[in-house]
Each structure stands twice: as structure tokens, then as C-alpha cells.
Amino acid sequence: MTIGFGVIGAGMIGTEHARRVNNVLTGGEVVAVNDVNAEGAKRLADSLGGNVKVFDSGHDLINADNVDAVMVTSWGPTHEEFVLSAIKAGKYVFCEKPLATTAAGCQRIVDAEVAAGKRLVMVGFMRRFDSGYRLLKQAIQDGEVGEPLMLHCAHRNPEVGETYVTPMAIQDTLVHELDVLRWLLDDDYKTVQVVFPRTTRHSHSKLRDPQVVLMETVKGIRIDVEIFVNCKYGYDIQCSVVGEDGIANLPEPQSLLVRKDAKLYTTVLTDWKKRFVDSYDVELQDFIDGIGSGDLPGPTAWDGFCAAVASDACVKAQETGNIEPVTMPARPAFYD
Ligand code: NAI
Ligand code: ISE
After folding, report:
1. Does the pLDDT value for residue 311 go beyond 90?
2. Which of 31, 34, 154, 315 is most buried, by the most CB atoms less than 10 A from its CB?
């Protein structure tokens, strides 16, 4: 059976994912598109060719008979509304990060899914599907570097626009680390703190950039994450796990090593789409296959909630300058 996808949000990642479903993956086909920008929706529908219907309302798209699964790729603050609507309609929903912009919003989604009695929601934390992070997780599980003690991480983007403001370094950017590091370590966060170095001249008045997020986990592991979204030189994701017996690093993306003109050099990617292209493919293929088998993979709505709880604490820490506790409720048995 081919899964009919309805895409809400025909922007950058919605377009990428829609093309991926139609041209790269198997078992799915985009049948409907919606965007508040009607022109954008039409552009995407036309580019997909065939019988893609453009809907004026995301909710009507969700309720369309030929939409089996909903893809939410609109702006973060709109996610909660569409995910809740999909759950109400009993439809599977792949929601790009963040699941909702606050923990309270994610809690409402968790409550709705538990009440529905069936896993319907998957969150687009694609790093869990990245081969490099998977190698790192396997190394930790195998005890390759002994018990992890510290993590040094960096999340660098070449530049961001004027609409990207200080809390977004957490809600939009760090949220990837908040998910992938708790998955990597099989641990939860206990406290968080945010410190601000001198701000780069490449930033603007509403964005403090870079930021350093310091976290402690329940097991006592210390993590530092540098968020630097106007680093200029490239899109660079780093993760170094310092263990009792050694250090394991996230592999660099494959890149040619050149010797030329008395120089030895390689290149750094600049585009997040290229850095994680394989992970997007794997996560969405797993989503499609999970619908087919009735066994949806993670990241679950609960994972989306946990990331949001930590994210809220980090935003508070940005404001107070204090070490803030992360208070995580017990996981519902539904997600065991
Ligand atoms: P974008 O701005 O390029 O596209 C978002 C689209 O959603 C726009 O076309 C906008 O008109 C539409 N939209 C906004 N509100 C809507 C509503 N109420 N109903 C229907 N359409 C609506 O943004 P982008 O970069 O594609 O990001 C979209 C989402 O994907 C965000 O949540 C972002 O955090 C996430 N994202 C995830 C990435 C990842 O690596 N997993 C990478 C980039 C984005
Ligand atoms: C963007 O929305 C993403 O999800 C990218 O993966 C991240 O690197 C970037 O900072 C976000 O703005």
C-alpha cells in the first residue's frame, strides 16, 4: 500500500521532504499540500506534478480521505495545532522539530496520543538516524572509551537572519543536541546554565551569539555545547565524548583532502540540508515503514516533550544567568 502524504508547510524543509518522499523513498506519495502562503503551496504542488491537491486549510488537508499521514513542516509555533488535529483524526503525523515550542504544548500532544491509545506521532529529530551519531552510540554502549564523563559539543551555522533572536539559539538550534545527547547517553538532564561570551560583530541587536550551554545529567556527566549561528565559515556539528578510557569523536562528513600550492586542505559544508541528507532519508523511510508495520519508530512525542522541558529550562537560564533545574516527570508506561 502507498501511504498518501499531506504536507503542511511548503517552505525549505517541507519542499525537501516532499521531494524525498516522491523521488527517493519507497512506499509514500505526496497527495496534498497546504501553506498559508498559497503561492508557495501551489509551487510545491506543481513541482511534484500529477495529482497533488492544494488545500486552503491545514485542518481540511488532515481530514482528507486520501491523506493517510500528515507531515508538519510549518513554523514551530503552528506545530501543536496541526499535530493535535492529526491525532484527533486518527492519522499518523511526522512533525518537524520542535514538536511544540513549549513543554506545556508538548504535554498536550502526549496526553492526546495516550488518550488515542496508539502511537501516531514521530518527531523529526533526524540526528538519531545519522550514521556518525549511531557509531558514537554503539561505541558508548560497547564501552569503547569507558564510562562517559564529559561531552564537548558545537553547533555552528554560517549565518542567520534578523528574525532569529536569542531564545531561538535554544528552541531552534540547541534542541537538536537536547534530543540527540539524551538518546546517545541514555540519560536525562538535571541542571542547565547558559553563559554568554563576547557577541560577534556579525550578529544583530536581538541576538546574543555565540552562547555556551552547560548541562549536568542525572548520571553526573558534564556537557558543554557551543551554539554559534553566525560563525561564517560553515555548518559544523561537533561532538566529543570523553570517557574513562579514551575519547570518541563524531566523524567528520566525508570530504576530499587536497595537497596543492604548498597547502593541505579539506572543505567544510555550509548547508544543513547536505550535512544530514542521509539521516533525513533514513528517518522518513523508517516512518513510512513503521506505518506499514504498525510499529512507529522514535523519536516519540515523549522525546519531543523531554527536549521541550530541557529547552524551557535553558531559555529560563538565558534570562536568569543561574543554574536552573530540569524537572522531568515520570515517563508514561505508554512510551516504554
Ligand atoms: P520555512 O520558513 O522555509 O517554511 C515554513 C513554511 O511554513 C512557510 O512556507 C510558511 O508560509 C508555512 N507556514 C507557516 N505557518 C503556517 C500555517 N499556520 N499553516 C500552513 N503553513 C504555514 O521554514 P523551514 O526552514 O522549512 O522550517 C520549518 C520547520 O522545520 C521548523 O519547525 C524548523 O525548525 C524545522 N526545520 C528542521 C530542520 C532539521 O534539520 N530537522 C531543518 C530546518 C528546519
Ligand atoms: C534549523 O532550523 C535546523 O533545524 C538546523 O538543523 C539547525 O542547524 C539550525 O540552527 C536551525 O535553525
Report:
1. yes
2. 34
* Long-range contacts, stretch 129-135, CB < 8 angstroms, 24+ apart: 129/278, 129/279, 129/280, 129/282, 129/283, 129/286, 130/276, 130/278, 130/279, 131/251, 131/278, 131/279, 132/250, 132/251, 132/253, 133/180, 133/184, 133/239, 133/250, 135/251
**CATH of residue 148:** 3.30.360.10
- What's the confidence (pLDDT) of residue 36? 98
Q: What is the CATH number of the domain that holds 109?
A: 3.40.50.720
Residue 237 lies in a domain: yes
Nearest CA to ligand 2 atom 10: 173
- Whether 251 and 156 share a structural domain: yes
Query: Residue 102 belongs to what domain range?
Result: 3-124
Is the confidence at residue 49, as pLDDT, over 90? no
Number of domains in the chain: 2
Q: Please indicate whether residue 173, judged by its CB atom, sits closer than 6 Å to ligand 2.
A: yes
Ligand 2 center to 279 CA (angstroms) = 14
| For range 196-225, the mean pLDDT | 98
Average pLDDT score over residue span 61-70: 98
Determine the distance from the C-alpha atom of residue 217 to the mean position of all C-alpha atoms in its chain, rounded to a whole number: 20
> Does 98 share its domain with 208?
no
pTM above 0.70, yes or no: yes
For residues 141 and 104, membership in a common domain is answered with: no
Nearest CA to ligand 1 atom 42: 13
**Mean pLDDT computed over every residue of the chain:** 97
Residue 293 falls inside a structural domain: no
Residue 15 resides in a domain: yes
> How would residue 165 be classed by pLDDT, with cut points 50, 70 and 90?
very high
CA of 173 to the centre of ligand 2 (A): 5
Confidence of residue 1 (pLDDT cuts 50, 70, 90): confident
